């Protein structure tokens, strides 16, 4: 792999240098119908397209203005993104408007918050919008693909206004600078080099939405190392997970990434016949991040795709968040990911004590060590005192990857980015809202602070309950599930999608609900008051497929399905 240059000071330089050093290498390509490459740009092509967008933007914006990018997955977005960097404006990646007034309203609210100077899109999307574009979009312009005179490069500190996915609350825009990104990309370089020797030609494959932090980071990382990125439409993966692995096999992908649920989907939906057509031997790094990493998922995926040449050592469980650019921890020096079983009651009481008894323990996957240049501390969320190794607390982060704060939200910025340790440490820390602990320097994630449920006087992490439910009956295996508490008495409710035909017979409903209650009581010592059995696809999810907890809680409270 080409060494990551350390004298680069802005993201636009990544592309400019590659356009000179390796103009004819394919920078990005897009998979279209029938899983075939339909578009590709070399580094020279991408540079020219970015210059065309920059020349257009410079005549319409001031340095530091925000520009909404409204594109489908593909090379057009990549060109527009680097065009923003060349023009010295802040890119605001946004999801395409889907059918329905609610989707348009959501996008309008995002634009109203971002306050862009204008919106850049494709001719097809502009035609689709017609006269429906919200006023908050500003002028809607189709990205130029040619220019008469090469523009002068401009600079601004903030590279991207990154909106969070909204899986746990209202989406907020995080201000991420060029320096934040470059530091984070170098950390990711440390992760990948420590895990395995990297090839001379990095080949990244991604179906992740380009407006999400991890999808965007993979684009930057590929450019940093002069690699080739193959983009798959997110919906193509969600409808047919096989397409992801088929493309990896076809292009010889060396690095890919996804949330944990994606690997479960592949195990569940990729048949043995399909698997036998795959060659996954080229994969050296497979990042698993953005939601809890499950030991069962890693084991099942490695076993299912071992015949295709997949190596369990390629798995790289990571922890990160948009407020920290994307990656926080994940450094591991070879070997398979570390899985340790801890006493379940101990974790609920805030202490991580190893316990090999399957009936009384919870297996956790280590998310690696922190990289050099970043400080990770485990802190009492109430008193702000640092916790000792093996004690559970909120994960606090400090270092050059931490973003500037939330756009136009000063109070929330102070609360989240202004954590202060009790004692003499004057540094400000990012409060991640995640609970975890350190063991022998490695970070283990326990759950979300805001999600902790107190039931019958006991603290319960909903992700644990959901994991138990999914494993309690074949009808729930691999299906989405959410556990929440509601009411003054904090009654525990579980909603789970069921892999059977609806409508369910009453006896079948009662049996499945009883299975849920028995499994949760046995493993967690708490009662489930309400069980909602739903058809597949009923639980609301984000654009990357993660369950939207706030919306699911509303669904439960509204009694949108039969409660048992």
Automatic annotation (TrEMBL):
One of its GO terms (biological process) is fatty acid biosynthetic process. Coiled coil: none annotated. Residues 16-407 form the AMP-dependent synthetase/ligase domain. GO terms for molecular function: adenylyltransferase activity; ligase activity. InterPro entries: AMP-bd_C_sf, AMP-binding_CS, AMP-dep_synth/lig_dom, ANL_N_sf, FAAL/FAAC. It holds the Pfam family AMP-binding. GO terms for cellular component: plasma membrane. Keywords: Fatty acid metabolism, Ligase, Lipid metabolism. PROSITE patterns: AMP_BINDING. Belongs to the ATP-dependent AMP-binding enzyme family. This is Acyl-CoA synthetase. It comes from Virgisporangium aliadipatigenens.
